[in-house]
Specification:
about 100 residues, mainly alpha, about 75% helix, flat
């Protein structure tokens, strides 16, 4: 296949992937409310994960040993896991009554 054909096929596929979000416009409100939180969490996790995994090679190139980078990554996961569990435990949707 020629280079132009690959560019066109890639562009069409990228457009199709980008249009997947428009499916939410035809969903029933009840279904959309059930799917919205996991979709937002997936999007945020993808963005943060992409940035995080691009930073690991930069950390290794910054004259750090792989052990230091590994400890920092494990410590970061642990700290944010504990923070998220604390926020989840203290979260409440009930209105305050006076």
């Amino acid at each position: 296949m020629s280079t132009l054909a690959w560019i066109i096929v890639g562009g069409v596929l990228m457009c199709a992937i980008a249009m997947v979000g428009s499916i939410t416009l035809i969903l029933k409100p009840n279904t959309l409310n059930r799917l919205l939180l996991p979709l937002v969490a997936f999007a945020a996790g993808s963005l943060i994960g992409g940035a995080f995994f691009h930073m690991i090679p930069a950390a290794l190139d910054a004259s750090r040993t792989s052990l230091e980078v590994g400890i920092a990554v494990a410590l970061g996961f642990t700290v944010f896991f504990v923070l998220e569990q604390g926020f989840h435990w203290h979260h409440c949707n009930r209105a305050q009554s006076d």
